[in-house]
Design a protein that fits this description.
25 helices; mainly alpha; three-stranded antiparallel sheet; single chain; 13 strands; globular; two-stranded antiparallel ribbon
Length: 731
């Protein structure tokens, strides 16, 4: 061993050379096993909703309410009330949600893990979570951390005089960090915003990179001091509008959340950053998961350091009222620096009645303060108009804040049918993507047989039937429980106009199925929805294709889906579900920086598929002929339309040599090794099943003796998973 080499025992786990370090471009399949049931300490059969049904929610509410004013000496509450602290914790748990890919949000309890537990914007929230520990210990698995994080903030509002729109339980915890989430390209916290933006403010073309929603690495929303710390309220408004829009909020919701949230509590910047210790994930063992130790005086109370801005927005920071808007409109503001050196705004002269009592020092009075992001609420013309209306109509503010806060906490939970607990509201919202409840008798075995016969006699091919069902169901994403076939929104705008659906011939197939539906339903008896018929048609296509290959397969089918209306569909919100790539159909709308095989894995994750199921579905869909458009890349068979294992047999055939077509290496040609004659074409998504060692191991089994039956098993299981992902009525 040379002098420069560390001894084996001195290495940490992070210093070992993982496969990703040696081969950084390799495919990461870990996300397909991210929520493996064995990762939970409760075991694979744990039913959180059953636990909730047996939980005394009234007592839980009373316990959380009591905690609000039970100030602890190790982290004393501002003004003796933890309410504002818990509001921030809930807001920052839920506020990571982004509509582009449905990732983030408070639905998994992910704030317990890196990187979220150590984001600069989440400074000192480790203490808020630790304050909740006694309640978690009392209730154990009967209440998840995910529910508790956001419930505490909701109760905080209620205890300070605000009436919320209600609260729904039902968020199950994860037990490992979601390390597949792309939070940005930066390699340091709070790096310049320019690293994730294209265009400029001055050019009017400044755009945040997709799928990101925050302006800097480590922030939930925007820099409160202004873009890149520059106190420009108009530019801050641009950042706010885009960021909140990426989190599914419009201008009115954005103003309501800002005004309502900043009615409570204060910002903390009593001392300089040089007194701060490492974040929780960077601390030592003795800290026991706590971070940001403040070495100045006590390090808490009046010496607390979090954002660097210092002060409260209103003179009544633990009480719901209209004082935020009264304060901001009744004063002239000037730019100052906090004790920590952060840029903030104070009144030139404080009006009578607006001095703020200090959070910890009795008898001390402070000026109210605003951040540059707050000043955007009265500087941007659209925000100003809304702020004035709320100022003059406090009842409108209360309603708008209640609705926006409820949306913030529940946006990633999916339809209201997934809500649990006695405090869930009866009101329904367009953004929930609800579908009508099923009414009347379900179609039974006789009706199903009749419909399958009519579908088989319709003249539609297996590829058309399977492709249309896939087009509808594969819009589902597990991150926020949106999309799927239930509701048959594939017939509605915007899905009906999507390029991938039009180029795949979905409209004509749908039209034929609608004719079958209309005729069947006119005959009396149980009625069939188009959503059910689309799935049943896909099943018929699979059974037909399998029979053509010599296999008898029955694909499970459970009726009960319903059809949504255009009025029940948020067109702007659903537009985010349009796929830019779908490797299962060899579809790419536009090429990007991420290779298509990596996008395939992400799609499989969204669809709750395992690696074997993903592999079987790609190979099976290829030979059936379900590619989007008229290209046949990856159809590695001389018997198209038959559900066989030909894709794997021919991909792994050593008699074929593959070479890229063009410099981009998106398409490849397979030629006979001896004659040089062209045999096949394939994409990156196709060839990865022979090049990636993990996927090749699965492909080799599917291509081996008995492998076709094994492939069919995983194909049918994966297909059924995709078709039933959105059957929340069956949970």
């Amino acid at each position: 061993m040379t002098a420069s080499q560390p001894e084996w025992g001195s290495l940490t786990s992070s210093e070992f050379q993982s496969n990703e370090k040696w081969w950084p471009d390799s495919l990461n399949l870990r996300i397909l096993h991210q929520r493996h049931p064995d990762s939970s300490p409760f075991g694979p059969d744990f039913d959180y909703r059953a636990q909730l049904d047996a939980t005394d929610i009234a007592q839980l509410t009373a316990d959380v309410d009591a905690l609000m004013t039970d100030s602890q000496s190790w982290w004393p509450a501002d003004w003796g009330h933890y309410g504002p602290f818990f509001i921030r914790m809930s807001w920052h748990a839920a506020g990571t949600y982004r509509v582009n890919d449905g990732r983030g949000g408070g639905g998994t309890g992910a704030q317990r893990y890196a990187p979220l537990n150590s984001w600069p914007d989440n400074g000192n929230l480790d203490k808020a979570r630790r304050l909740l520990l006694p309640i978690k210990q009392k209730y154990g698995k009967a209440i998840s951390w995910a529910d508790l994080f956001v419930f505490a903030g909701n109760r905080a509002l209620e205890t300070m005089g605000f009436r919320t729109a209600g609260f729904a339980f039902g968020r199950a915890d994860i037990w490992a960090p979601e390390d597949d989430i792309y939070w940005g390209p930066e390699t340091e916290w709070l790096a310049t915003e320019d690293e994730r933006y294209s265009g400029t403010f001055e050019g009017g073309d400044r755009v945040l990179d997709n799928p990101l929603a925050a302006v800097q690495m480590g922030l939930i929303y925007v820099n409160p001091e202004g873009p890149n710390g520059i106190p420009d309220a108009l530019k801050s408004a641009q950042d706010i509008r885009e960021t909140f829009g990426r989190m599914a909020m419009n201008d009115e919701e954005t103003v309501a959340l800002t005004v309502g949230g900043h009615t409570f509590g204060k910002m903390h910047g009593a001392v300089g950053e040089n007194f701060h210790g490492p974040e929780p994930e960077g601390e030592g063992l003795a800290a026991q998961g706590l971070g940001w130790a403040n070495s100045h005086e006590t390090g808490f109370g009046e010496y607390t350091l979090t954002s660097g801005l210092e002060g409260a927005w209103t003179p009544t920071p633990t009480q719901w009222d209209n004082s935020y808007l009264e304060t901001i409109f009744k004063h002239e503001w000037e730019l100052v620096e906090s004790p920590a050196g952060a840029k903030q705004w104070e009144p030139v002269e404080v009006q009578e009645g607006y001095w703020v009592p200090d959070a910890h020092v009795e008898g001390k009075m402070n000026k109210p303060v605003m951040s540059t992001a707050d000043m955007a609420m009265i500087t941007d013309p659209a925000y100003l108009e809304i702020s004035k209306r709320f100022y003059e109509n406090p009842d409108q503010l209360a309603q708008a804040f209640a609705d926006a806060w409820f949306k913030l906490l529940h946006r990633d939970m999916g339809p209201a049918i997934r809500y649990a607990g006695p405090q869930a509201p009866d009101a329904e919202y367009l953004w929930q993507d609800n579908v009508p409840a099923h009414e009347g008798e379900l179609i039974g075995e006789g009706e199903i047989a009749t419909l399958k016969s009519r579908i088989a006699d319709s003249g539609l091919s297996a590829a058309e039937l399977v492709g249309t069902a896939w087009a509808a169901a594969s819009t589902y994403r597990r991150t926020d429980f949106r999309g799927g076939v239930n509701g048959a929104r594939i017939r509605l705008s915007p899905m009906s106009e999507w390029d991938v659906n039009v180029s795949s011939g979905v409209p004509s197939v749908r039209s034929t199925l609608e004719d079958i539906q209309s005729t069947f339903n006119s005959e009396g008896g149980p009625q069939v929805s188009l959503a059910d018929l689309i799935v049943l048609a896909g099943n018929v296509g699979i059974e037909t294709a399998a029979a053509a290959a010599g296999h008898e397969v029955t694909v499970p089918f459970t009726p009960g889906r319903t059809d949504a209306s255009q009025e029940d569909t948020d067109v702007e919100s659903f537009a985010w579900l349009e796929p830019n790539a779908d490797g299962f159909r060899n579809y790419v709308k536009k090429s990007g920086m991420v290779p298509t095989e990596h996008l395939l894995v992400d799609k499989a994750f969204m669809l709750n598929l395992s690696a074997p199921q993903m592999t079987a579905l790609v190979g099976g869909l290829r030979v059936i002929g379900v590619n989007a458009g008229d290209q046949c890349h990856g159809a590695l068979t001389d018997r198209p339309g038959q559900l066989s294992n030909d894709f794997f047999v021919n991909l792994l055939d050593m008699g074929t040599v593959w070479a890229p077509v063009g410099e981009h290496e998106d398409v490849f040609e397979g030629s006979d090794r001896e004659s040089g004659e062209s045999k096949w074409t394939g994409t990156r998504v196709d060839l990865v099943f022979g090049s990636d060692s993990q996927l090749r191991a699965i492909s080799e089994e599917f291509a081996a003796a008995g492998g076709e039956a094994l492939m069919l098993e995983h194909f049918v299981n994966g297909w059924t998973t995709v078709m039933e992902n959105d059957r929340f009525d069956l949970e």
